[in-house]
Amino acid sequence: EKLKKQGFQTATLIQTKSLPVIARRINCLLVAPTGSGKTEAAVIPVFSVLSSTTTLESRKGKIRVIYVTPLRALNNDVLRRIVKYAEYDGLRVEIRHGDTNTKTRKRIADDPPEILITTPESLGAILTSQKMLFALQDLEWVIIDEVHELVSSERGAHLSLSLERLHSVSLKAITRIGLSATLSSLAETSKFVVGPERKCAILVD
Question: Residue 2's CB: how many other CB atoms inside 10 A?
């Protein structure tokens, strides 16, 4: 029903598989070709759960969702869609990356959004700020986009460390969701997404 309200006539295969898994807050890796609706498969249920389980007042001043992307993969169309889905549920989105100006960074720190889109490098920088660490204490969801671009790189190694730090910072249980194009080593990639000791559902289109 939520997908229909957002303009989808029918759910794609990856959306059909992922919706019940994400709704139950299960760590997962979504693997599907470009254009199959992976972004929607992740963000629509996450935003829906967030808006239905917390009040506006309880969300204020806390980041609940972090969306990590190698920013060049996040084109303007994808960004507009994420913002639209968030606003539909009464949620606010901000973007923090290497080119974000000082004024915007200060606004994010002083008045954190419910959803923060960032890069692996900027996430590492955020974790050095006491004000941002406080804002992350109620973090519940981490979505990692374009996992196939990060898994075997130095950026990916740094991201893995930052993701573990998020678990130590947040007072909530964090659910991780990875989005990727077709991969050859699904088991190893799922370990990258959630860490070697956590279980991860692998959903393939």
Answer: 16
Q: Would you tell me how many other CB atoms lie within 10 Å of the CB of residue 166? A: 18
Rounded CA gap, 190 and 196, in Å? 9
CA atoms within 13 A on the CB side of 18: 32
- Residue 91's pLDDT band, with cuts at 50, 70 and 90, is very high
Q: Which of 49-58, 79-88, 107-116, 128-137 has the lowest mean pLDDT?
A: 49-58
- Please state whether the predicted TM-score (pTM) of the whole model is above 0.85: yes
Q: Residue 34: how many CB atoms within 10 A of its CB?
A: 8
Spatial strand order in the sheet of 141-144 = 93-96, 115-118, 65-68, 141-144, 175-180, 28-31, 201-204
Whether 56 shows a pLDDT value over 70: the answer reads: no
Whole-Å CA distances, 52 to 46, 48, 59, 92, 199: 10, 6, 11, 15, 26
Instruction: State what percent of residues in the chain have pLDDT above 70.
Output: 94
pLDDT attached to residue 72: 62
**What are the C-alpha distances in Å from 39 to residues 1, 42, 145?**
17, 5, 8
**CA 195/CA 176 separation, integer angstroms:** 10
Q: In Å, what is the CA distance from 133 to each residue of 4, 12, 55, 63, 145?
A: 37, 37, 21, 10, 22
